[in-house]
Write a structure and sequence with these properties.
The protein has 292 residues and is an all-alpha fold. The protein contains 13 helices and two strands. 27% of the residues are buried. Pfam families: BPD_transp_1.
Length: 292
């Protein structure tokens, strides 16, 4: 490995300056402000501020609405991760078996990733709209009365589908790359020994995909907890009856709509610590089962 030596000691810092500035301005500074405001209580106009210690955190742990938000977030994150990764893996395996048309299918499947979360939410909101949507009509034919405006289950299904659809393309790209990196000779040898397609997948392909799967698991959990705000806001706005009010949306609603800055900041701190803890747990214990 060749080591680069800079003649000017200031040059490396100048090269790192843009990235350091972005990290400080858009992550470290807002995170620091959130931590500071979580220990404060201020009025809606920001005129009077008082230090209240851990009062905001204690109030959250005693709040049924916040505890419900924790439960909803857990169900939502697990569902989005499972649906997006499972569907992406299925599509990647299908494309990997193609020879002539693989590039065409790959290009078509990547397009949804360019769609903004809010646009994806509105798209699926129209598709499942009880009045003008196509899917409620189809479901009514088979005897299911769809209405995500009043049904908690239907609302959760809608936001999970919209959020997962947006992430499938990202997962698909990594799974395709991982499948193409697996030597064909391994699967051919297993086929010669009499192993069927299903056994070859679970005994050879999937274990060798474990590094890719582990990486996508971390990315998808972070995505479902942070980047799905636009989907929730465009489809259900946390309803009905708080059924889809995930933690990141509650941070926005309490802070910007309810003007409860202290509680909103405390929620953002808890959310940040929760995501960091989940990531550490995954790297500490889950990664041990990854085969590199």
């Amino acid at each position: 490995m060749k080591r680069t030596i800079f003649s000017n000691q200031l040059l490396p810092w100048l090269l790192l300056a843009p990235q350091l500035a972005i990290t400080f301005i858009f992550f470290l500074w807002p995170a620091g402000q959130a931590v500071r405001q979580s220990f404060l209580r201020e009025d809606a106009f920001g005129i009077k501020t008082s230090f209240v210690g851990l009062t905001n955190f204690r109030a959250l742990l005693d709040s049924p609405e916040y505890l419900n938000s924790l439960q909803v977030t857990a169900i939502f994150a697990v569902s989005v991760t499972a649906v997006s990764m499972g569907t992406a893996l299925l599509l990647a395996v299908a494309v990997d078996r193609m020879l002539k048309s693989a590039r065409v299918y790959t290009t078509l499947l990547v397009w949804p990733y360019a769609v903004a979360p809010a646009v994806a939410g509105i798209l699926w909101w129209f598709i499942f709209n009880p009045t003008v949507g196509v899917m409620p009509y189809v479901l009514d034919v088979i005897g299911y009365d769809w209405n995500h405006v009043s049904s908690k289950t239907d609302a959760m299904i809608l936001v999970v589908i919209a959020s997962a659809w947006k992430q499938i393309s990202y997962n698909f790209l990594f799974f395709v790359a991982g499948l193409q990196a697996i030597p064909a000779s391994l699967r051919e040898a297993a086929a010669i020994d009499g192993a069927g397609p299903v056994r070859r997948f679970f005994d050879i392909t999937f274990p060798l995909l474990s590094p890719t799967t582990f990486f996508l698991l971390v990315v998808n959990i972070v995505y479902s907890m942070f980047e799905t705000f636009g989907v929730i806001d465009a489809t259900t706005e946390g309803g009905p009856a708080q059924a889809t009010n995930i933690m990141v949306y509650k941070v926005y609603f309490d802070g910007f709509v309810g003007q409860n800055i202290g509680s909103s900041a405390a929620q953002s701190v808890i959310l940040m610590l929760l995501v960091i803890s989940l990531t550490v747990i995954q790297f500490r214990w889950v990664e041990k089962k990854v085969e590199y």
